[in-house]
Amino acid sequence: MDLENQKRVKALAEEHGKENIIVLLGGADAEASGLIAETVLNGDPAYAGVLTGVQLGLPAYHVLEPEIKNDIDPGLFDENLSMMEMVLEVDEIVEEVSSIRKQFLGD
Amino acid sequence: MLENKKIIILGDRDGIPGGAIEKCLENMPLDVVFSTTECFV
């Protein structure tokens, strides 16, 4: 995850409180999405940014996961996301991101 | 589940950009506090 973005996310978590924040991901594949989810939940696995060893515990969801998709207006979803939903390996992404949430949040 | 939450959007240039996710959240009772599009090279 981008080092500058790690700083921003850390500052926002401190400002707003982790219980009020949800992180939405647009990752192109399961690996990239999983790494970002892990970074905001449990710290930077690459040991490169300010989130190294920092367990923010922010719930992260890929925007194509059913929990998020079902919250979005169907017309806006079709307009902005349906094309990428057809292209991306959605099942793999959902499995990876949800398993990381389960590992670090227990849900 | 997004209602009344502070939303951080981490889009992906090769996947779904932050701007596309932002547009989907328009008119929802939530607060986008940060939106970006990462670029993995």
Structural summary, described in words:
The complex is a heterodimer of chains A (107) and B (41). Chain A has one domain (3-105). Chain A is built from 6 helices and 2 strands; from the N terminus they run αβαβαααα. Chain A is mostly helical. In chain A, α2 packs parallel to α6 (90-105). Chain B has 41 residues and is α+β, with helices and mostly antiparallel strands. Chain B has one domain. Chain B is 17% helix and 37% strand. Chain B has one helix at 18-24; strands spanning 6-12, 31-38. Chain B has a two-stranded parallel ribbon. Chain B is elongated and about 30 Å long. The termini of chain B are far apart. The relative contact order of chain B is 0.39. β1 of chain A pairs parallel with β1 (6-12) of chain B, so a sheet runs across the interface.
Mean pLDDT of chain B: 95
Order of helices and strands of chain B: EHE
Radius of gyration of chain A: 14 Å
In whole angstroms, the N-to-C terminal distance of chain B is 33 Å
Shape estimate of chain A: globular
Strand order across the largest sheet of chain A: 1-2
Strand content of chain A: 5-15%
Output the structural class of chain A. mainly alpha
